[in-house]
Amino acid sequence: MNIKRNVLLNAGPSTTTDTVKMAQVVPDICPREKEFKDIMKPMRDDLVKIVHGSKDEYTSVLFCGSGTICIDIAVNSLLEEGKKACFINNGAYSQRAVDVARYYGIPFIEIKQPVDQLPDMEKIKEEVSKHDDIGYIYATHHETGTGLLNPISELGRIAHEIGAFFITDTTSSYAMIPIDVYKDNIDFCMASAQKGIMGTTGLSFIIGKTDIIKKSADFPKRSYYCNLYMQYDYFEKTGEMHFTPPVQTVYAAKQALIEYFEEGEAGKWARHQRVMNAIHKGLKDMGLKEALDKDVQSGLVASVCYPESPNWDFDKVHDYCYERGFTIYPGKIDGRDTFRLCALGAIDEKDIEDFFDVFKEAFDEYGIN
Ligand SMILES: *Cc1c(COP(=O)(O)O)cnc(C)c1O
């Protein structure tokens, strides 16, 4: 096989191994065949295992769609009649969850917090205590737009103290930053195959408490296609997705999970940190500033302020790097322009060193100082 290897420094989809890419090239198969169901059963167990859930208490439910489908499903399926959702909003992805709630006409409260600092936990406790009808608290673990990491364990504890359950969007941290559903007080988390597990796009999953999913059979139904209980129930009864699954992506995810467990939770997180340290170092050497303090960062995304040079032109630098196999990604923090360098995917230190060689060349080429 000879497929060009691109180093994706955007926040997913991420660089995959050749073995994951090749796993998608399979004989045509009808996904209703037993052979195909036999792939998804252990996959559901593995996805729970990654966040250390017990099979007796937690399950995972697969969906065909990008990561946002999980936000949609969790937000709309898990709110009991007569209750309100509560969103901790401190970034683009928690804003997305708020938008979903608004679209469905779900009753909710929103606790806004700064996008570049850790949330004020006292303030959150105070706000939450004003309501006695919160069904769930929802927070994003890693706000991928900025790189901010939220303290989910504490947020989950607050939820449990008020008898609500805790939903967290772990799409850009799952299978990278070690997560433990018990220590992190998680009732529901979610991710997408093209991020942490380093699979390909189109398969997403929610991992959560089986008893709550069963209970949610009686919660108001707000969507037909995007309902957690319906998909869970279909999986339990038939071993299949209710509707056509992303067949090739499931094969890629199967291979990606093999590689995940080979590398191991600790080894993989150590590699991501190695990559991020190389990013920090490269930025520092070039005199570029990061938008967030290190101590609030996830260690997976660096948001970089635009250089002040009048010759700086993101698109030109992007294209220069892109033509040489490296992808960088723009962003905005509180109206300020930034770009992002991310440590997701099947990459290592050496890729970052190679990237900075090209990045510096681009600066020289366009006279950026
Ligand atoms: C990537 C991501 C998603 C999903 O985005 P899609 O574009 O729908 O795949 C959701 N939440 C977070 C935190 C993400 O990083």
Structural class: alpha/beta
**Helical percent range?**
25-40%
Uncertain residue segments: none
User: How much β-strand is present in the residues?
Assistant: 15-25%
Mean pLDDT: 97
Number of helical regions: 12
**What Rg is obtained from the alpha carbons, in whole angstroms?**
21 Å
Note the gap between the termini: 41 Å
List the bound ligands: pyridoxal-5'-phosphate
Q: What's the helix-strand series?
A: EHHEHEHEHEEEHEEEHHHHEHEEEH
Characterize the largest beta sheet: strand count, sense, and whether it forms a barrel.
7 strands, mixed
> Globular, elongated, flat, extended or rod-shaped: what is the shape?
globular
Widest sheet: strand ordering? 2-10-9-8-5-3-4
Could you tell me the number of beta strands? Answer: 14
Report on this model:
The chain is an alpha/beta fold and 369 residues long. The chain is built from twelve helices and 14 strands. The strands form four sheets. The chain has a seven-stranded mixed beta sheet with strand order 2-10-9-8-5-3-4, with helices on both faces. Strands 11-14-13 form a three-stranded antiparallel beta sheet, covered by helices on one side. The two termini are 41 Å apart. The site of pyridoxal-5'-phosphate has 13 residues, from α3.
